[in-house]
Give the backbone structure.
Amino acid sequence: MSCVSTSSSFSVHKIHKRACLVNAMSCPWMDKNAKIEKEVASAFEKTCRNDVKIAEDESYLHFELRLASQVTITTSVAERTREQTQTSSSNAVYATILTDANIRNAISNLRNHGLVIIKGLLPPEQTIPWGKVVLDDFTSAVETLKNHTTRPVDLLNPDKGIFEPLNYKEMAMREDLRVDLRSGPSMEQLRAKENSLASQAMTESDVVDKSNQPTIITSDNMGTVTSWRYHPSILKILKGLFNPTDAALSKGNFGRWNFGGNGPDGSPQPFRLGQIGSVVSCPGSGDQAIHADTPHLFENEDCHPCHYCNVFTPGYKITNDVNDELNNKTPCVQNEFLDGLWTGSSTMGGTALVYDSHRLSVSAKLLSESDGSSSDENERTFLRRQLLQLLTLRPALDAGDVVIFDNRTLHYGIANTSKCDTTGNDLNAGRRPLLYLNCSQSWFHDPKNWDLRESIFS
């Protein structure tokens, strides 16, 4: 979105509305240009909620685009200019606030399909600085570990080091060249500043922020556009997701008088909002194994209400390196543009998510092992593989875009096939900082405990 003209009484904005793009450059082992086989289409109709029908002779790629668009909310100009805020650098920017209809749409997609994509929800002026401090701390961590006196680790050359990297207080390894960085000196400085500004803005709520600890969000906390972590629309979506209610039944929940509660008033119950962290994928990192981040708590229903989810947003901006191309220099990151518009394809990768896979029945259909009793097992294996390919979405996110997904949803990080900088001018070239928030029901405790591990920076 760009401002075309402005006056003291109004401003004119230009917005390019589009459905969700997908990173067609990624996962070359999937033949997305092939036509969807009739038996696969039939399996899809029997497995998933039939909100989208497969057209005759439709390709996997075309169907992926339609499926991704179905779970995408494209914000309007009115939504993108509803409120002004200031960044931590004191610059005024527009903040997007979703309408109640789009809030309900987001919650519905999360409950029914396990994910929602929201275009242009966050001001890049709030997310890009986070990507910068993440990469600063990652560079510092690389050097610190490489020069460790007793146990040196080379994160960027994992096949050459003597010692394997550990999981540390500030950083956990995902696999070679991909790490989960939750804190560092630069991140802590920005976190303290933003949390302080947000707390001052949310005067109606009793907010207590403790460095690396989650914050309890109560029903009266409406959030603030001062920090993307407390974005009002994200908090509204999470309250609705974690608190499915029936007004008639809510009146019978008398246990809510306990522990100073307000009684059975049907208001959203508290949830945990994690601090901002980042998964950093370096050039050369491969496709992750498909996985879910949390188990289902019970196995007697196909899908109980969500208890744990993630909010993802890029800490970087997609650019067209025309200057490098004019100078006959191959850019480290190749983003595909057509007529000045990004097509969605990028060598930096992203995250692939499997539509509807937060349901036990769908995951079982896609990944359950053979019992060896069927004579047509080859056909079953083929159907499972093709159905998984059909349901795999590779949403292309630019700065300000958000994907929220139920942590029971099957997903994996996509390979980063960008090139490292060989000139020494930009050590972070090709590195992809994907920012995240871990959010959960207030009673759910993630068993990971980072605080007892060795510290990199202290």
